[in-house]
Design a protein that fits this description.
Blueprint: E1 8-12, H1 14-19, E2 20-30, H2 34-41, E3 45-46, E4 51-55, E5 58-62, E6 65-66, E7 83-86, H3 89-102, E8 105-114, E9 117-127, H4 130-153
C-alpha cells in the first residue's frame, strides 16, 4: 500500500507575498484540537493578518482564523485562539536571533497536510514599502509579457 505523500494546501496567505519580502521559510507542526483538524480538512481557515511570536523559547501562532466545525458540539474550538507551533529549540533560537538582528517578523505563508499531519510554513519576512510593491508588480507584469511573447513565438 502506498502512502500519500503529496502536500495538500488548506490555506495560503497570498497577501504576505505582496506586503513582505520573504527571506527564509521554516516548516513547523501545529498543535490543534480535534474539531480544528476537521475544519482544516474542509478548508475553513484564513491566515490574513496572522503572525507568529516567540515567548519563553516557544513559538505561537496568533490571529489565525480556523472557523468553527459545523458538526461540532459544545466541545467546539475557539476560532481565533493562540496555537502552539512545534519546532526544535535550536530552530526557534535561530529565528529569534534573525528577528532581533535585522528587524524581521514571522508570517505564516500556508497551512497544509503532510502524511496526515497539519503543518504551517512560516516565513521570515521584512515589510515592503509602497514603491517596493509597485516595483514587484511591474516585474511580474514584465515577466508575464515575456512568457506570453515566447509562447506565441514557439507556436
Amino acid at each position: 500500500m502506498t502512502e500519500k505523500t503529496k502536500d495538500t494546501a488548506v490555506a495560503t496567505n497570498r497577501k504576505a507575498y505582496h506586503d513582505y519580502f520573504i527571506e527564509d521559510t521554516v516548516e513547523a507542526g501545529i498543535a490543534l484540537q480535534g474539531t480544528e483538524v476537521k475544519s482544516l480538512r474542509l478548508g475553513l481557515a484564513n491566515l490574513t493578518d496572522s503572525y507568529a511570536i516567540v515567548k519563553n523559547e516557544e513559538m505561537y501562532l496568533l490571529n489565525a482564523n480556523i472557523s468553527l466545525y459545523t458538526h461540532g458540539n459544545l466541545a467546539n474550538h475557539e476560532p481565533l485562539r493562540t496555537r502552539k507551533l512545534l519546532l526544535h529549540k535550536a530552530e526557534i533560537r535561530k529565528l529569534t536571533w534573525k528577528m532581533t538582528q535585522k528587524g524581521f517578523t514571522l508570517i505564516p505563508l500556508k497551512i497544509y497536510f503532510t502524511r496526515g499531519r497539519a503543518k504551517v510554513l512560516i516565513g521570515l519576512a521584512k515589510g515592503k514599502k509602497s514603491f517596493d510593491k509597485r516595483d514587484t508588480i511591474k516585474a511580474n507584469e514584465a515577466k508575464r509579457e515575456m512568457d506570453r511573447v515566447v509562447k506565441e513565438r514557439n507556436r
